[in-house]
Amino acid sequence: xxxRSGVVITGVGVVxxxxxxxxxxxxxxAAGESAARPWDDLAREEFRHTVACRIDGxxxxxxxxxxxxxxxxxxxxVAAGVVLPARTAVVVGSTMGESGSFERAGAGERLDLGGxxxxxxxxxxxxxxxxxxxxxxxxxxxxxxxxxxxAAADLLRRDEADVVLAGGVEPFSRIAMVGFSRSxxxxxxxxxxxxxxxxxxxxLGEGAAMFVLERERDARxxxxxxxxxxxxxxxxCDAHHPTxxxxxxxxxxAAFRDxxxxxxxxxxxxxxxxxxxxxxxxxxxxxxxxxxxxFGDRQPAxxxxxxxxxxxxxxATAIEAAVCVAALARQTIPPTVGLAEPGYPLDLVxxxxxxxxxxVANAGYAFGGLxxxxxxxxx
Amino acid sequence: xxxxxxxxxTIQDVAAAxxxxxxxxxxxxxxxxxxxxxLATGDAGVDVAVAFWAAALEASPRFANPADFPWTLANAPxxxxxxxxxxxxxxxTLVGGADAxxxxxxxxxxxxxxxxxxxxLVVACDLAHPLRGSFLVLxxxxxxxxxxxxxxxxxxxxxxxxxxxxARSSAAP
Lengths: 379, 173
Known about the structure:
By secondary structure, chain A is α/β, with parallel strands linked by helices. Chain A has helices at residues 22-30, 40-44, 64-80, 99-106, 120-129, 144-157, 174-182, 216-221, 250-263, 281-295, 306-309, 316-330, and strands spanning 7-15, 37-38, 51-52, 88-94, 135-139, 163-170, 207-215, 228-237, 270-275, 301-304, 332-333, 347-348, 353-354, 359-366, 370-378. Chain A starts with 6 loop residues before the first strand and ends with a strand. Chain B has helices at residues 11-22, 46-58, 76-85, 98-113, 154-160, and strands at residues 35-41, 91-95, 119-125, 133-139, 164-165. In chain B, β3 and β4 form a beta hairpin. In chain B, α4 (98-113) crosses α5. The two termini of chain B are 19 Å apart.
């Protein structure tokens, strides 16, 4: 076991369809609201599924993903009250990058796409904030936010940076909308119901969440208030199928075990699992199976958030990590919006629940068989 | 060892070639969960995303080919390599040029140093680079060395580190 307690979050910024501040997001989430609604433009364009969670009114002239990332990063820096030092790194996870540019190119526009990959997002944030430190981009699909936060913490532990801005960014993507629809992963009813017996698929989202990470001693030295401890990132790979999870959930379970071992925790130390909970038949089933495998008859509380703000793909685990930070501060578990009829004998949270939260596990899985579990602790 | 890829090869072809060539060089007896994959790419997903959307517009979004969709994601090549070689430990995809390769090497080195993995496959998977793909197998005794900062692509940087090319385009000099 290594020392995993030395990195903390001191600032959070979010832009989501359910709120563009963490307090606002929490308030609407706790109230059980969902941002999902049908969109006329998608209907006009002959999309089979037209319900999504999108952000209205975003000034995205320089690229929607860049705009989301920059807004969230600025928020996080202000919230942290930090003067960014020279050794500030930017680490961002996403799926395919500035997908709107690929759509324009697919429509025949001549564009240089070399600068439109996932790497565009950390570079845009660094440029906006005048940073010259290292930039990293993790193309880890729907687990990308967790990857970015784990990597950011490692940069600080290895003393390769003094502050890291890290998180996930995902602009709304017509390519993803069509791709998931044609892969039969989208909800025909337009309602994401994580772990529900009647669940029928996901609803696409978008957004960004960025965090200021610092070594705890540095944060305390400048009298900053740590919001949460960044614990271990557990990783595994199903190596099973391009898109489907292992039905036995063993890859997911391995990621849980990896995180717990790295942090020297036992399963009973986890008070809440912030589930991937995409609302698809296969993914939720595999996740439920993994919960049984890892936690046995002593199940922690389980809540998934995608019924509230959709599946934001590469930003999903980052936005969910932001909610974990809010939950740790409030010692309250948010509800699983959309869940009406639990499909599994798990401790599924359907209403906000006051609880003693020491460690929460933020889970995210992805195409390509990626399994990730990030531990976040009370500060 | 492998047939050369044509200039028209896809990112799927590059990833498959990497898996074919690297597989025999992995050590026997390493548990799948103790192997890690660390892939750097500058362009994985880009061409497929553009083609996928062009096809969707040509007919209708309702008829886009679902089999192409996973390849619009940057981590699809890593997924193929992991499946082919049954790598069940950490699986990273870093997007960028030599900087991404340097980060991939750092991840591999860190995981080896702390015993999280016993063997690390570091891969560069670029469609646009003439050599397109290369890899290094690292273990407890052969650790990473820093990637040079100058090359623009991950493939070039990994070759400069001593990586083995797997996919030489016929268009290459």
